[in-house]
Specification:
- The protein has 155 residues and is an alpha+beta fold.
- The chain folds into two domains: 3-51, Roll (Ubiquitin-like (UB roll)), CATH 3.10.20.80; 57-145, Translation initiation factor 3 (IF-3), C-terminal domain (Translation Initiation Factor IF3, 2-Layer Sandwich).
- Helix content is 46%, strand content 27%.
- A four-stranded mixed sheet has the order 3-4-6-5, with helices on one face.
- Strand 5 and strand 6 form a beta hairpin.
- The relative contact order is 0.10.
Length: 155
């Protein structure tokens, strides 16, 4: 079909002539509404952005002698980060005489790992680097799948 015929047909139908492959022989064009075409492109770009989401690493700091309330609030915050799909790194600094009592820090980190075991897996196990002890957790994908199944059952 010639260019003039295609333009005339587009006017008759009240749509636009959109060229998709100008370098092809013959060039490829479609009769569609241009605003609809732009909307579809935006939707595709948004879907690609969702698929390519980069997870952040959120760091939470502890001390070896952390109080129960402070510990619970940090665990609650970490759970929220993990459910959002972000990785969580717990770091603990040993100051002064506490460097000799590393077992306090190990106990606290193990307790944190146990409390978050249903929403996370260990990516980097607890290790001591200088006077810092750290562990990194990554979210499990099973959590999101089970939540969606539960909502389907409720409906």
């Amino acid at each position: 079909m010639s260019k003039s015929d295609a333009l005339q047909k587009a006017r008759e139908l009240g749509v636009d002539l959109v060229e998709f492959a100008p370098k092809a022989v013959p060039p490829v064009a479609k009769l569609i509404s241009f605003s609809k075409f732009k909307y579809q492109l935006q939707q595709k770009e948004q879907e690609e952005k969702k698929k390519n989401k980069v997870s952040d690493i959120k760091e939470l700091r502890f001390t070896p002698m952390i109080a129960k309330g402070d510990f619970d609030s940090r665990i609650k915050k970490a759970r929220g980060y993990l459910e959002d799909g972000d990785k969580v790194r717990f770091s603990m600094e040993f100051r002064g005489r506490l460097i000799a009592r590393k077992e306090f820090g190990e106990r606290i980190l193990q307790r944190a790992i146990e409390q978050l075991s249903e929403v996370s897996t260990i990516e980097i196990p607890p290790k001591l680097i200088g006077k810092f002890m750290m562990v990194q957790l990554t979210p499990t994908k099973k959590r999101k799948q089970t939540e969606s199944k539960e909502t389907e059952v409720k409906e």
